[in-house]
Model the fold of this input.
Amino acid sequence: MRRRGRGGTTMLRTYLRFVLQSVLGMLGLSVYILADTFFIANYIGADALTALNLALPVYGVINGAGLLIGIGGATRYTIRRTRGEPGGAAFSASLLLGAGAALLFVLIGLFLPERLARLLGASGGVLAPTTTYLQVCCLFAPLFLLNNILVSFTRNDEAPGFGMAAMLVGSFANIAMDWYLVCVAGMGIFGAVLATGMSPVFGIVICLCRRRGFRPNTAGMLREIPQIFGAGFSAFVGELSSTVVILIFNYLLLALSGNTAVAAYGIIANVALVATAMLTGAAQGAQPLFSGAFAGGDAAALRRLTRWGICVALLLGAGFAALALLLPETVVSVFSRGDAALTALAVPGLTLYFTNYLFSGVNLLLTARFAATERARPAAVLSLLRGVVLVIPCALLCAAAGGVTGLWLAVPAAELLTLLTGLWLLRRAAMQLART
Done:
């Protein structure tokens, strides 16, 4: 990572620039999913909103695969470049992995969309829109994956502004297409998912329009693949955690209260995507700086970056929790269309669920810090704890103890336990670094 100076002030300005641009880019990326929710809820109906929430886990897997390959490859690119080694092999390996993942998703979209929709819990009037959403989403997976790879490499190529622009332009284009295809053309759920599938084209074009420091290089490409998986695994599991939570909540809510509860959770989950995206952006924005400080052997810079990252995560998380506490009715009313039953479930759910952001932002930051410094094991531990290992038993126990109300507290409980583990792992890593 190129530095203009060693001073803390210069580093802080660099950190804030990277993080702000990454947060804005991720905010734009998440807003188009929120736009889907708004247009579907207000112009198509509750069945389509339920279908969107049932299909979201597959979108999460596609996006998670893109993050695994993109962030993993970009991290390897930064470390190799900082050490004076060529980084093109990491880019070539990422493209190869992306092509393999894209082929898999396209085959699913062609031959298994209805079976997958039934597996996710769709039935009756919800089955057809869920199948449509899944099929189009899978067929456009190559664009999602390539966009993730190019944005990650662009950001790590010391051009976070271009990465931010790619995500924002794609998101605003999606919102415009959503409005036209759903509201004007009346294309229903197909129009909504078609707009989402086409939006990565704009980000891809922007990333390809700049002079790039990374070029394909097949020499040593295959040796990079295990390293990419190691560096990107935590990002994949972090994204997958949202998918796992949505799946578990959908199944439990269907059993507890039926489709209305799933629609209420659809509102909460899609609003939560915006908060999660901003916190993820704060963590990903710091990731190139973590990698640069680590590769350069600058332990003091790594400590400062970690402290700043934790402070930003806490401030953002507290803001999201306060918003859900003070204005839950206002947020829910944007999507509920005055449905009293839907509002009665979504308002308390939003307030309780959003307490998780008091802890999850720090968890994301610590995960990114470990992954960016070639500590794949603790990064994977934190990702697995918050995404699978803790959230499943917490969901089952909370639902059994408190029904729907108890279920809203499952994610905050899992995030708190993960945070305690993450702070212990960070302390142990600091002690190991001090001994060396």
